[in-house]
Request: fold
Amino acid sequence: MLCTPFFFKVLIVVQRKDTVLSRLIKDRIRSEGSMTFREFMAVCLYDPTHGFYTQGPSIGSPEGPFDTNVKFPAFAFALAQAVKQVDDILGANTRILELGGGTGQLGKSIVNFLGGQRNYVVVDLSSGLRVRQNEAGLQTVEDLMQVPSGPTVVFGNEILDALPVHKVMGIGQGNVLEFFVDLDEDGELFEILQPPSTPALQAKLNELHISLGRGQVGEVCLELRSVFQKLGSIVDPGYLIFIDYGDTASNLYSFQRRNGTLRSYYRQHQIYDFFYAPGEQDLTADVDFTAVSHEAQAVGFDGGTLLSQGSWLTNLGIHSYAKDEKALAVIEHEVNVLTKATQLGSAFDVLIFQTKGLPVGPGIGDATEPVKISHRLPSSPTVSIDTPGNRRLHLKW
Ligand SMILES: C[S@@+](CC[C@H](N)C(=O)[O-])C[C@H]1O[C@@H](n2cnc3c(N)ncnc32)[C@H](O)[C@@H]1O
Reply:
């Protein structure tokens, strides 16, 4: 979601909503005991009936929960240029696979920009969103394993940030406890710390050389492994292109983000209570691009080039979208929002992989400074950026 301070107001609430899903979660905790934060997040987002995504939210519309890059047609235009570059390498009409297609708006626009006839498949866990994607004229499946192997370019705009994560806290000497969701004496949802639910959590942190300090909170996404194993078996040959907010592990698990990155959104507002309205609020965490690269490389993908959304869209020729003189001002504004470092250009990064033997992916070739993920230096806590008015802004995160 467009999660910079420019786009979100903060909603502070005292009274939680009594949603159907909150009642179901409480019943389950009463009968089965506490659940991991990961299970809570998975139920909130993907419960087969009451999950936030299952209900098919109107992402990108004024009454919807949040906006994404997809709101801007120029974004689809740039992605269509990426597909054309892939076609030049893999052959005309290479299959496009979109992971987490939202309302189907992106797929529909990309197909239109490519001339209307395209082998385009959306993989989406959400039954409600698959209905919307079908209405947009797109072919959908629920699971990657339903897709046969073949030459493919995969896009995922803000899918990785929607995968459920385990939430952990450092307790010294590299060890962690895990956050679970339980009921307090008033019967309200709250978080408690317990020994990890699975040794895979500590193993993942060790693999990434992450040692959380005492009291430092972080998230771990174990879901990535199965997603990439499936991608490894069906993308043959092809490219994976992920657009998302996140950082490399060394930055993500740093002192600057000592409270972790989990966030929640409710009707275009950021909300600080994860238990405010289960099933009606979104939950999301920054993507660990290092962990993503490990999983991609483990199943045989090469690359792992990380560059800012602004650089990538510019390399793809997004500025040539503004052709029609009449619409020029509107389009220029749209392109600026997507590419300027002060707006979304640096809020999102693009991470690209290719199967072995293929040239690097679209939009990288002319990049001034594509950054290999393993060589990316930790960023300083304070960065200076140029604003359009040539003022210098200091952002802290
Ligand atoms: C934040 S939304 C982004 C939607 C759209 N790409 C956009 O940018 O507007 C996340 C999307 O990923 C889907 N999703 C989450 N986990 C998934 C999974 N494991 N497999 C397929 N789709 C998934 C959700 O249902 C939803 O469509």
